[in-house]
What we know:
Blueprint: H1 6-15, H2 24-30, E1 37-41, H3 47-54, E2 58-63, H4 66-75, E3 84-87, E4 103-109, H5 117-125, E5 128-139, H6 158-166, E6 170-177, E7 192-194, E8 200-202, E9 207-213
Parallel strand pairs: 1-2, 1-4, 2-3, 4-5
Antiparallel strand pairs: 5-9, 6-9, 7-8
Amino acid sequence: MTDFGADFWADQHAAGPLGSAVNPHLRELVAGRRTGSALDVGCGHGGSVRWLTEQGWRVTGVDVVPAAIEAARASTAGLDTPPSWQVGDVLSGWRPIGPAAGWDLVCSFHVHPDGPMTDFVLRLAGLVAPGGALLVVGHHADDPARLHAPADPSVVGEELAAPLRAQGWSVEVSRHDGPAVHHHGVHHHGAHHHGAHGQEAPRPQVDVVLLAVRKG
């Protein structure tokens, strides 16, 4: 079983840039929404934070790896409204500093705890302001990037949405699919296969996507 702790992610960041481009599900599902405050948990090198900022959101990026935050800060230094950055581990129960009522958008991409994924989703849900949205994207158990997929398929799909429905949330999206091929830089765990002339070509990865809105 893979330990997705701080040491694991520090090693991943040392091997190359992670999360340096916007997540395609974020771009698909959040474009055009009313802007406000946003929190990206496990922001990596800040690609999604940068995109949200460019759309007019006031964004806080959080990651457990200090080096990732420094890289993200450097990559967004030229923005008119720089994001804010914090180092911390939400999985440990730490709460980022931010609006007392929570954020208007909380998002997290491919962050997998060692414990139940549903517990992690509920922890993120506790950071969302009334009327705000939660977007969680994870690797499906059938993802070709198998190293980073949850070990048990039961942690994905509708089971992530059920606890939120029970609390009165409106679940707008609950699916598993691969809406785009994740090239290097767009996603950091894309698997590959050999295409024509022996060249490696990115394989579509299978993601679990949850978008829910908290009752106002």
